Model the fold of this input.
Amino acid sequence: MQGVVYKSTGSWYQVKAENGKFYECRIKGKFRIQGIKSTNPVAVGDVVGFDVEDGDEETGVIKKIIERENYIIRKSVNLSKQTHIIASNVDQVFLLITLNNPPTLTTFIDRFLVTAEAYDITAILLFNKVDTYSIEELAEVRYLAELYRSAGYECIGISAKEGKNVDKVKEKMIGKISMISGHSGTGKSTLINAIEPTLDLKTSEISRQHSQGQHTTTFAEMFDLQFDARIIDTPGIKGFGVVDMEKEEIGDYFPEFFQLKQDCKFHNCLHLNEPKCAVKDALEEGEIAWSRYKSYLQIMEGEDENYRVDQYQK
Ligand SMILES: Nc1nc2c(ncn2[C@@H]2O[C@H](COP(=O)(O)OP(=O)(O)OP(=O)(O)O)[C@@H](O)[C@H]2O)c(=O)[nH]1
Ligand SMILES: [Mg+2]
Ligand SMILES: [Zn+2]
Done:
């Protein structure tokens, strides 16, 4: 039978078959596909072929994974440097961003966006918790939204809790598989509940002491919504390590750099110290955000994102 993985807990996979029925599946033996070394061989969103186990109508064994159209993969930022596929075969990803409670740094946003670009997945930025911000903080949100709009991304200010602009987000989800991502505590599950209250997903307050989320959602899970849409809730991610990219390709995953590349003197310009570089000129002119360029340098140097960048420096 063929089905789609809706949830993975590491050893068990919940697979929805074409007949609409769910099966608890395992995998047998070692799975290594497309040469990706990841901690999870099978990810939510994977289309899999599986056999129903003898004498049992509810369990099965996954035999193969149909080639993925795309996937979002990250490298953990701790010493293990393991790679993990967050989800596959998604049409778009919504990145939830909060200014504080918890803070989301531009370096994190940029790494996430680079990965989405690399796998050709549309990313939409949702600035959540707008109900909690002061006038100054709202100005900061506006500044960031403008920055990312000029880089080519759609940005929406929302309040998952109060429902502000949730309809706009919902509209974008029609007919698609959307993945929701962001740090723990940014409101991913709250947003999904606002879109589909019957799901009643678990949410928890962020820790007051550390302004961090509590990692309430522990496994990625896909849900069918009552309107024609599917959504994947994911556990909060701490850091986002970019997986194996060639230095020459990284600049192409910054859309505003890529657009200017043809005006650089050298066609293979890395926008570092080359003469007559259109990207560096635009940076000098203030047309490219300094924070974006800093993120670019960090990724080029293979630095991890904890290496602090003055994110609002212009
Ligand atoms: N004021 C306000 N609080 C919000 C908003 N969205 C979410 N929250 C709160 O933020 C806290 C964290 O929300 P969750 O939905 O659990 O966050 P999450 O991103 O799913 O977190 P993890 O599952 O840990 O990754 C909860 O206390 C929510 O009520 C919002 O728009 N405004
Ligand atoms: Mg959650
Ligand atoms: Zn250049």
About this structure: The helical segments are 106-118, 135-151, 166-173, 188-195, 247-250, 255-260, 278-284, 290-301. The first helix runs from residue 106 to 118.
